[in-house]
Every structure is written in C-alpha cells, then in structure tokens.
Write a structure and sequence with these properties.
213 residues; alpha/beta; seven-stranded mixed beta sheet; globular
Length: 213
C-alpha cells in the first residue's frame, strides 16, 4: 500500500568533501583544491521498472518534457524513500528548450531541492540515457546551453553525496511518476513543490511502483 510522508524528511547528514567533476566536452576531471577524496559513482544497469533505494537513502527520479513544434518545455521530478514513500515532487515550466536541456534542468532542479532540504545521501535515476551517461562520465555534451547546465550540475554534485552516489538509467515505464510531474509542469503558472502528499495525477503510478508493476 502506498505510504506518504506528512512532512518532509530531515536527513541532515554531514557532507563529506569530494573531488569530482563531470567530463564535459572532452575536459578531464578536475579535483578542486588538488586534494580530498574521490567520489565513487555506482552505475547500475538499465531497468524496466522503478526500484527502491537502499535504507537511509532518498531516490530522485527526474524528467524533462519539450513539445516538438513549439519547443515549450517543462520539468518534473520526485523524491521517494526506501519503502517507496512519497517525500517531495516538483514541476515547472522553463520556457523554450530542447529535450536535452529540459532533462538537464530537471536534474539540476532536483539536486537544488536536495540541498535546500539537507538531503545529502541520495541516488539519481532518469530515463534520458545521455544525461545519465554524462553524470556517470560516459558521455559529453557540446551544445552551449547543455554545457552550461552540465557545469551547474557538476558544481552541485560534490555538495550532495556521501562519497558513494548511485546513478542509474531506467526506461520510460519505470519513470512514470517523474514523467507525470513533468507533464504537470506544462500547466502550472509558477514553480510548484509538493511535500508529503502527492497530486492526484501521479498517485496511481506511485502505487504501481511500490507494487513493482
């Protein structure tokens, strides 16, 4: 049965300094300050269904949406705990953007929300394989706006993880909740954040994910 949190979690974990940067447009990783530990990113195989994170970790699923004709774009994402309980969801319009930029902005916004809430022990999952591969250092980007978003993501990642971040790709069927929030983003007048109680439009997908369907 779907469980939701009536208040956001307060996982104020100590941030462990790490040295990591994304490989962007052929640049080699840079270790800030020349010292510190190196972040270990666990790259799981692509999954067909949503999988719960390990106990003590929150999982971010993100998604971006861009309409082909108008290029009007929106983003969305969701945080859930190790039991599949809904913690937080977000959605907003971002103007005109490509699908790749929308996906990157969706991830960046999700990371910003983690920092705002003090959630440092998170895992990341999305259905845009290129974006996931960039985070896992298996791909690079060249378009200017994609590059700018990647640089902002690269600056956020070391502030968040505990030195052992899990990053995974899931096929669309396993990213339905995040997709639902991104779809909601097209219709909101201002950025929205749901805490503890999800909107009706995504409840059935949350339930299916908990049941492993």
């Amino acid at each position: 049965m779907l469980r939701v949190h009536l208040r956001p979690l307060s996982m104020m974990l100590q941030c462990i300094p790490v040295s990591a940067r994304l490989v962007i447009a052929g640049k080699a990783p840079v270790a800030p300050g020349g010292g510190g530990g190196r972040r270990s990113i666990h790259a799981g195989e692509s999954a067909n269904t949503w999988r719960k994170p390990e106990a003590g970790r929150l999982k971010l699923n993100f998604d971006g949406s861009s309409k082909h004709a108008s290029r009007r774009a929106s983003i969305g994402g969701v945080y859930r705990d190790h039991e599949g309980g809904f913690v937080l969801g977000y959605a907003e319009r971002i103007g005109k953007a490509t699908s790749s930029v929308a996906e990157l902005v969706a991830l960046r916004r999700g990371l910003e929300l983690a920092l705002e809430n003090g959630w440092l022990n998170i895992s990341i999952e999305g259905d845009a394989k290129t974006v996931v591969d960039v985070v896992k250092k298996r791909a690079s980007v060249r378009a200017a706006e994609d590059l700018r978003q990647c640089e902002e993501i690269a600056a956020l990642l070391p502030l968040l993880d505990d030195g052992d971040m899990a990053v995974s790709h899931v096929r669309r069927a396993g990213n339905r909740v995040a997709h639902g929030f991104a779809k909601l983003g097209h219709g909101v007048a201002w950025p929205r954040v749901w805490r503890g109680v999800p909107p009706d439009e995504v409840i059935r997908y949350l339930q299916r994910d908990v049941e492993g369907k």
